[in-house]
Design goal:
Strands 1, 2, 17, 18, 19, 20, 21, 22 and 23 form a nine-stranded mixed β-sheet that branches. A six-stranded antiparallel beta barrel has the order 3-12-15-14-13-16. The chain has a four-stranded antiparallel β-sheet with strand order 4-11-9-6, with no helix packed on it. Helices cover 36% and strands 32% of the residues. The protein folds into four domains: 109 residues, conserved putative lor/sdh protein from methanococcus maripaludis s2 fold (Beta Barrel); 114 residues, Efflux pump adaptor protein, beta barrel domain (Elongation Factor Tu (Ef-tu), domain 3, Beta Barrel), CATH 2.40.30; 54 residues, RNA polymerase II/Efflux pump adaptor protein, barrel-sandwich hybrid domain (OB fold (Dihydrolipoamide Acetyltransferase, E2P), Beta Barrel), CATH 2.40.50; 115 residues.
């Protein structure tokens, strides 16, 4: 039984001996030094170019001026323009509607007759004035004679040469004559008031006559400008009332578009070295000061058409939700230079792009927007290592940004043209990490193309 136990430990002892022998004869493994990992990135050399700030908005075309033909008199429509209808283009001064003028012509005839009657009354009053003045002179002379006779009788009465009854009869004659003079004076004083009343009535008749002539003129409704009819509400022989809208028209000399532009982009368009007073400048002067130009682009069914426009004004409010400001541009003569099939007129209702441009800025450092990491740029330094710089952006554009300065400590070198920025994703980004840079020529060409003339971009150059 004891021998069997020893048999159990024999393999264990053999294993221990083999392990000791192997350990004595083995050599230590060779250790190799750790190698730094290299991260491959795409880079772009920062160019220094002339940039033109731009902002793009979208809006609907509308006419600058609209007009409604509102009836100012009532009556039956006797005439109607033969080509009047929605969409028709009617020239300035063309007769649209003729309302029956008979009632208004009769009003004029009646008032003119009243004017003649009032003038006749004034002439009669002038004659009465002259007659009253003459009668007054006669009555005054008669009164004087009566007084003289009374004085003579008074002297004779004192001498008892005449009877008292004769004296009293003469006295009554003098009183009657005084009453006649007083009556003539009163009549004379009333004449200026009567004349003033007739003058006022005459002026009233003249006012009524002017109103009647104006009503007669309002029976003819003509186009105030060359325009396109947008509504036609009245037919021939229809009775219309004052205040009825007969037709509406849109002016063709100018069109305008209102677009909403983010404040940040619009601020980039504004650049002036001098303070300005908006209240003292006309639209043209403001355009010259700010240097903003505009272009309207229509993209419809593969057709791309453009019109030169001008910055007209800003809307009166700022949208607090979208943080955008309304900009209104105008296009002169939107119906001119039309080429059927390739360039349509800029009609009301077109949904278009509006490209706004600010004054060009020369010698600016630009980088793609995708290369920005909040306020930082990733660069590859001369030792092929990652350098992170905090920068200040002068201007944001949809595809690129203009860098104005580096915000960093004194050890940080300024950003300059030719510095290599990283335009590919880099995660994680650790300062000083080793990089393998590869220039992306296509990205460089694309960035330069973004700063070219905006007219090329409006044609679809990307």
């Amino acid at each position: 039984m004891s021998n069997k136990r020893w048999y159990f430990f024999i393999p264990v002892f053999i294993g221990i001996i083999v392990i000791v022998l192997l350990k004595q004869n083995s050599t230590a493994p060779k250790q190799t030094p750790a190698q730094e990992m290299t991260k491959s990135v795409r880079t772009l050399s920062i160019p220094k170019l002339t940039v033109t700030p731009m902002a793009i908005g979208y809006g609907t075309v509308r006419p600058v001026s609209t007009w409604e033909a509102v009836a100012q008199v009532e009556g039956i429509v006797l005439e109607r323009h033969p080509h009047l209808g929605k969409g028709a283009i009617i020239e300035k001064g063309s007769l649209l509607f003729q309302i029956d003028p008979v009632d208004y012509e009769l009003d004029i005839a009646q008032i003119e007759a009243d004017v003649l009657a009032t003038k006749a009354q004034l002439e009669e009053l002038d004659t009465k004035l002259k007659n009253t003045q003459a009668s007054l002179e006669i009555e005054k002379k008669s009164l004087q004679l009566t007084k003289n006779e009374l004085n003579r009788l008074n002297k004779l009465l004192k001498k008892s040469s005449v009877s008292r009854s004769d004296f009293e009869t003469q006295e009554r004659s003098m009183l009657a004559q005084q009453q006649s003079v007083l009556s003539q004076n009163n009549s004379l004083k009333l004449i200026p008031n009567q004349k003033a009343l007739l003058d006022a009535q005459l002026q009233q008749k003249y006012s009524q006559l002017k109103r009647a002539h104006r009503n007669l003129e309002n029976t003819k409704i003509t186009m105030p400008f060359t325009g396109r009819i947008s509504a036609d509400n009245v037919e021939l022989a229809q009775y219309i009332r004052v205040g009825d809208t007969l037709a509406s028209a849109d002016a063709l000399d100018k069109a305008e578009i209102e677009v909403q532009i983010p404040i940040g982009y619009f601020r980039g368009l504004l650049r002036s070295d001098k303070k300005i007073n908006l209240l003292e400048l006309s639209t043209q002067q403001l355009n010259n000061k700010l240097g903003i130009t505009a272009q309207v682009v229509l993209r419809e069914g593969g057709l791309i058409t453009q019109w030169d426009a001008k910055f007209a004004r800003l809307t009166d409010t700022l949208d607090p939700k979208t943080r955008t400001i309304g900009v209104i541009v105008e296009v002169d003569n939107p119906y001119s230079e039309v080429t059927p099939g390739s360039k349509p007129p800029l009609v009301k209702g077109f949904f278009v792009e509006v490209h706004l441009q600010g004054a060009p800025r020369e010698n600016r450092l630009i980088v793609p927007r995708s290369a920005l990491h909040n306020t930082h740029l990733y660069l590859v330094n001369k030792d092929s290592r990652l350098e992170i710089k905090k920068i200040k952006v002068e201007l944001y554009q949809p595809e690129y940004a203009v860098i104005s300065d580096v915000i960093e400590d004194k050890k940080s070198s300024p950003l300059k043209a030719g510095d290599k920025i990283i335009i590919s994703d880099l995660l994680p980004a650790i300062r000083g990490m080793l990089l393998s840079a590869q220039d992306d020529q296509d990205a460089s060409d694309y960035l330069k193309a973004l700063t070219q003339d905006s007219s090329a971009r409006a044609q679809g150059v990307q």
